[in-house]
Protein 1
Amino acid sequence: MQTRKLFTVSLIAILTAGAVSAENVLRWTSQGDALTMDPHSQNEGPTMAMNGQFYEALVTRDEAMLLKPELASSWTSAADGWTFKLRKGVKFHDGADFTAEDVVFSFNRAKHEASDYKEQAKNVVSVEVIDDYTVKLLTDGPNPILPNQLSDLFIMDSGWAKANNVENPQDFAGKEETFAVRNANGTGPFVLGSRAPDEMTVLTRNANWWGNDMFPGNVDKIEYRPISNAATRVAALLSGEVDFVLDAPLQDLKRIEAADGLQVKTVAQIRSIFFGMDQGVDELRSSNIKGKNPFKDARVREAFNLSVDKKAIQRVVMEGLSFPTAMITPPGVLGNTPELDESYGFDLDRAKSLMADAGYGDGFEIQLDCPNNRYNNDEKICQAAVAMLAKIGVKVKLDAIPKAQHFPKIQKRVTDFYMLGWGVSTLDSHYVFSYLIESKGSWNGTGYSNARVDEITKMIASETDIPKRTALIDEAWTIVKSEMPYVPIHHQVLAWGMSDNIDIPISSDDRLRPRFVVMK
Amino acid sequence: MAAVSAISFSLFNFVGDPVNNMVGQDATREQRVEIRQQLGLDDPVLTQYTRFIGNVLQGDFGLSYRIKRPVSTLILERLPATLELVFVSALIALVVGIGLGVYTGIKRDTWISRIVMSVSLVGVSLPTFIIGIALIYLFAVHLRWLPSSGRSGAIDLGFWKTSLLSVDGWRAIVLPAITLSLFQLTMILRLVRAEMLEVMRADYIKFARARGLAERSIYFVHALRNTLVPVITVIGLNIGGLIAYSVITETVFQWPGTGLMFIQAVDFVDVPIMAAYLIFVALLFVVINLIVDILYFVVDPRIRLGGS
C-alpha cells in the first residue's frame, strides 16, 4: 500500500515535471548545429542563426526584410561615409557597457584576414569615433547601400575579447581552439546557457535586453536541437517533441499540415536557382563540337531557355513549391520587377528553329554539372532538364555530385554547363552583378562580359541618387534578360513547420526572429 | 593500420574541396588560394601524408576544419555515446539472440519458433535506416512512448557522459540500440540455432541424457557451450560491424556519437576528423580481434591444451 502510494506520487511528479514551470520554452530544430560561437569566423546558415540570438549588429531586418535599428538608433549618409548614432544604455551579457569603441573593435575584427566576413566588411574603410555614442563609418567614395551590408556584422565587446585573447578570429592554420569558439558575450536578447554540440543548446532570455519592452516576442527560453535526418526531424515535430522545424522537407509538408495542432508556413526564399552556360571559352570541354563554342551564339542560349519548361519543373519536380522566373535574383531584392521576373515562355518549335538557324539543327553533346545535396530537389531538376533539352537534339550527360565537389568546378572554371543557386544578403542587385554577371565576378562561370553592364555595376556602387540608381539597375537587368547568359529556373520556396500554439512570422531569409515570436 | 591510414588519406582527394565549405560564397578566388596554401592542400599527397603521420605520432591529430576544435578532444567527447550505444545493442543482440537461438534450436517445430524465424528474416534483409525510421514512427509519433531522437537524460560524470544511469537516458537509448542490434541479433539467432541443431545430434548429448542429467543443464551447459566457438568468432567480427553501422543509426537518431560526427565531417570534407576516425576504427577492429582470440582459449579447452 505504502509503496504503491509512493509510486503514484513519484509518477505524478515525473509526469508534471516539465509542465510546472510557466515560462515559454520554444523548442526549435533544424538540420545543422552552429559550428562556432565566434561571430566572425563562419559565414554559414546555422552558425549565423545561432549567433544572431546573442550577438547584434548596428542594423537588422524585421520579418518583412525591412532595415531596422538595432545597436544603432539612427543613421545618415554623407559623401565619404555614414554616421551612426548608437543606442544608449545597452550592456553586454557580462555587464560591460556598449560604446563606440566596441564598434571600432568589431569592424577591425571582421576585416581581419582570418574573418569570414571580410568581404562584407571591406566596404567600411575605417571607423571614426566622434563621441562615445556616435561613429562614422568611412567608405571609399559614396556608398548608397552601406546599411544593407551591415546587418550580419555582429558587435563584440572589446574588453571581453582582450581579456580572453580572442581579438582576432581564428585562422585556419591555428593549432589551438580559441575561447570564442565555445563562449559568447553579446548584447542580444538571449544568453548562451548550456551547450552540447549536436545535442542541445539552451538559450535563456536576457532580462536586461534593451528591446524587452519594444517587441511582442514572449519566448523565455530557446532549446535548440539539431536533427540532421529529415524524416527524424519531421517525426520530432509530429510527436510534439519540438515546436518548430526551420527546414521542413518539402515532401512532408502535406503530412505536417494534416496533423492535429501543426501548421506550415511558406514564403518565396531569397535564393534563385539557375543554369550557367560558359560562353567565354573558345571550345567547350565536354562537347562534340570542336573549334567553336555553341554558347557564344545567342540563339543557342535562347533555345536553351525556351526548351526548359520551368512550369513543368514547378508542377512535377517541385510539387508547386517554386516560382518560375527569368531572373537570377528573387523578389525582395532591389532590381527584381514583375516584368523582368516573367519567365521566358516554353516554345519548343521556336527553340528548334533557333538551333537550326545557328547551325546546330542536329543538336550537340554537353555535360551538365549539378550538385545533389545543396538545393531543393537539385538533382531532379537537372534530370528534368536533361529530358527537356533532348527534345531540341542536345544530348546532355548529367554529372550530379555532392556540393563539396561541385562548387570547385565553377570556381576553377572547368565546367561548360552547371547549376548554381544564389542568395542575396544585401537585398540589392549590386551583390548579384558583382559576383555573377560582371566580367570578373568571382562566381561568374559563364564568361559573360558586357561593357555596359560592367560599367553599370561600377556606377551603382556609388550612385546615391536613388531613382537614377534604380533606373541603371533596371537597364542592366534588361540587357541581361535579352542576352541570356544564364537559364534561370525558379526562386526557391521556404517552408517552416510549427505548432499551432506559436505565431512565428516567416522570413524569406530563413532566419528565426524570436523577438516577434508569440507563444500562447 | 598504416595501410588503412594510407588508403583513407589518398581517398580524401576525391571527397571534394574543403575550402569551399570553409569560406562564405563572398570569398574571392585569391582568398581561397591563400587558404589552400596555408593548409598545404596543394602539396603532393605523399607530402601531406608524411606530415599527417608525423603529427599523429606526436599525438597531434590537428584541428577540425569545421568546428575549429582539436580532433582528439572531439573524438573523446563523442566516444562515450557511441560505446554505450554499441554496448547496449551488443547486449541485446547477445542475450536475445542466444536465448531465441537456443529455444528455436530445441523446439524447432512450435509455432513460436516459426514466427521468430520468419520475423528474423526481416531483421537480416531490411536496411538499418528503414528499421530506424519505422521504429521512430511507431514508438515516438504514434504511441508517443519514447523520444524520437537525441540523447536526452545523459548524466555527465566529468570524464564520461552516460545514458545508463537515468530513466530518460534509457528511454533515449532503447530505439537506436534495438535498431543497431537487429541485424546482429538475427545473425546470432540463426547461427546459434543451426549449431544447436547439429550439437543436439551429437553422441555426448545422448550420453548426457542417458546419465539422467536435467534437460536444462544439458541444453545450457553441454550443448550451448559447444556451439559458442563459431558464435564468438562471428560476434567478434560483428561488434566491429556494430561500430561501422552505428554511423547510419546515429544519423537517423541524431545520436551524438563519433558516427554522426564522421558523417558530418564527410559532408564538409573535414579531413582531420575523417582521418582520425578511420584510424580509430581500425584500432578498434585490431583490439576486438585480439579479445576474440583470447576468448577462444577461455571457451574451448582444445585450443588451450592443443599446444602442449
Note: Chain B touches chain A through 56 residues (CB under 8 Å).
Protein 2
Amino acid sequence: MQHITRVITVASSKGGVGKSTLCISLAGALAHRGDAVHIIDLDENRTVLRWFRQHNVDLPCLSVSQVAPADLLGHLKEVAGHANPPSIVLIDVAGVYEKALLQAMARSNLVIVPAQPSEPDLHEAMKVIRDLHELNDSFGGHIPYRLLLNMVEPLDPHYQRHTIAEVARLGLKRFETLMHKRAPYREAFLNGKPPHQSGEGRVSALKAVAEMDAIVQEIDKVLGASDIQEAA
Amino acid sequence: MSTSRGFKPLASIAASDAELDAFVARKGVPALNHAVSSPAVAVQAPSPLALVKPPAVLRRVTLDLPEYVVDQLHDRARSARCTTRHVVMSALKSTGVTINDDDMISDGRRLR
C-alpha cells in the first residue's frame, strides 16, 4: 500500500483574507474524518502555532510546526518520511508578497487562494494565481489552484453578486462552496475548537461544519483529478 | 503488506531550491529575513505550562555609537529588509547573548 502525503498551501499575498482561519477549520474537518494533518506555519506572526499552543488543542491527529522558508523542502521530506506520516500537510504563509509564498506553492499539490469578495482581495489573488501559472510553465508542473471566496455575506448584497460574477467572467477556478462569515470560525481562536470540534448544535456551527465538509469534498476531487493528470 | 511512501509534491515541480531561488530573483520577488533559522519545531500536545508565554518586557537603551557603525547598521537593515533592532539582536545572539526566538521579530510587526 502506498501512503501519499498531500501538501496544500493556503496562499495569499494579502493579510486579512482568512488564511489561518481556513487552515484551522480545514484541519478540524480533515481530522474529524480521520486524516492525520500537519500544519506548517510559515507566517512570522505564528497565528496557527500560537492558537495550537495557547489552547492546548486536543486533536491527536493534528500537529503544528514552525519552519524557516529556506528549510521547507527538507522539513517536508522529513514529515513525509515519518513513521506515521500525515496524509495532509497544510502550509499557512504570511500575507505578504515574498519569496516564501512561491517556495511554498512550488512544493504543493494544491494551492488554495482565499479572498473576500472585494476588489483588493481579488487583485492580490490574481497576482498569486499568475505566479503559480508562471511557476508551472517554467518548471513543467501542473499544480492546480482554487480560489476560495471567504467571509461571504449571508445576505448576498449587490456588490458581492457582482464580484462573484466577475470571478466567473475572468475564468478563475474557484470552489463552488462559499465560506460565509460565521461566528464559529472566529470562535475557534477563542476556544481552540474548529467548527467540527465545537460540538455545538447551533445553526451557525452546523452550517460551518457543512461548508468545511463541502470544501474537503471539492479538495478531494481536485487532488483526484490532479493524480490522473500526472499519471497521464 | 509492505508499505512504501511516496512524496507527491516533489513530482509536481521538480525544481531545486536553487532553481526556485533563481526564478524568484528573476521576478524580483522580495525575500523577508525570517527570524527562524533553527530546525523546525514540531509541536505535539503542549504542556499546560507552555500555554501562557507573556511577551518579553522591553526596556529602552540609548547608546552613542560611531556614525559609521550606525550607517552600517542601517545599510544592513535595508538590504535584509528588516529592522535595525533585528540586526543588532542578531549580532548579539551570534555572540552568545541569550535571546528567545519569540523575540526575534525581523519586520517589526507585533505578534497578533
Note: The first helix of chain A runs from residue 19 to 32.
